[in-house]
Amino acid sequence: MVGFSAVKARMHFKKLSIAFGVAIMVISGQLAAASSYSCSPLAATTPFRSTGLLDVSLHSGLATLDENKQQVYAPMYASEGVLSQPLPNLPGQTASLLWPLAEISVMGKWWNLIGEFAANPGIAWRYRDHFAVLGDDKKRYEISRQALSAYPDLLKRFQAAKPEFDRIEIRADAVYDDAGGSPSATVALRVHANDVLVPNEGSSPYMVPMSPAKWEDRLALGNVIESELPQAWSRLRGVRCPIVTFYGLRLPRAELVSIAKELKAYQDEDARAEKLLGMTKADYRPPQATKPYQGSAEMSQPFIPEVKTAEIVREGTKVGLRPRGLSAASAQGPVIYPAGDFVGARPLDAHGKFFVFTTTAKQASIVAANGRVISVAGLSSFHSIDEEEKEQRISFYPENHRSSSAIYRTKAWYSSRGAFDAMSERGFEDFKSRDVMPPCPKYKGNGVMIARSLSRFDMHRTRRVVTDYALKIVEDGPVILPGEGYGTQRGDKTCL
What we know:
Layout lengths: L5 H5 L3 H7 L9 H6 L9 E3 L5 E7 L10 E4 L2 E5 L2 E4 L14 E13 L2 E4 L2 E6 L2 E5 L5 E5 H4 L3 H9 L6 E9 L10 E7 L26 E3 L7 H7 L2 E10 L5 H29 L27 E7 L2 E10 L2 E3 L9 E6 L6 E6 L4 E5 L4 E2 L9 E5 L4 E5 L10 E2 L15 H10 L20 E13 L5 E15 L9
């Protein structure tokens, strides 16, 4: 940790350069200083709040609004392979208009909870007020927060266009005594993508307590082995010179390009309306036809089809929608193929207003009868969409929770994954208090008992958006769901 090599400072920022289509240049100022960042033995120590409790907010230049946490500046890096590069333009640089982020903060608590390593990490972030992104057509599309403020729908989409990452690693020098002295070990705190829910831009972080199966899953302390980590953690008095590295940092370039295009279209339409208004104020009159139309009144009306319902049509490998009831003269219309690599479809309701279309990658989207893909909570693609007709609601799951890191494994044995309902954080805590191995039933006589197959299940935290059948959001937040099951093996004991 003491002194970063010149190789890291000179390394090109390959992954983020590809994401935005240009090389990101770092020039003089605060960022350039971060690229040659080194830790001095006399650097200020960030003390633990109490024995074994680190409560801190690490930021790249703009402190968070949480006054209860210690505010500590930490250089922010993004990793490419085994090398890393400082995040460009954090904060206040003008080196690249093509870097959208103005600030990222990582915060939370890390502590020893009755022998278990516990944490409640969260992140907060903010876009720059003015930046540009490159589209697939190699054109540059600019986004201005001030311009977006005139269009609330685009502003909400902008704030919901969240960055993603695989994991975060916080590295700092360990301090074992009040006097400071030379660092004798490096503390490494790991935050996986499944540990946090990324909030909207400028929003307070979601900070939910979690505990890994083993200390070493989220903590490394020098060369200390797993069994000695709790004792070594309790001896720490503080940390010095923290550095934050994002692994697999990704920005929603396609969504930002879409927002920039729609912003330009809105502005052009407003400019055209202003021009027409000016012409009207100047007493402009359009030219009159020299001879009025004398034909049928019906034929003089414009043909504007209004698609309200449709039916699914399959032609080979393609799937589309055929509108119904466009006019009295035509019961059917042309087939509409929604934009996307869709190979499957099913009705979402009994009226033919909305449909669930699926892609070859098993992603699902909501499509209206007119062929338009509908966004729900700022998202247009989901891992799964579940209809619950009895409750008259629909559950949307953006991510495949079974492929993410598990946060808990049941102690009791259950017959199937269907034994669990989606649980809130409070419900999950109540479930864990009841998740104990049950007593064995007592049987009389000499009968033979045939046991059902039982399993223990991993539990995962994921985001769920719940709407009614009109797609109005009634709930949006984290839930706990079962994932992988582990069946009984010879020698397992399923009851006491």
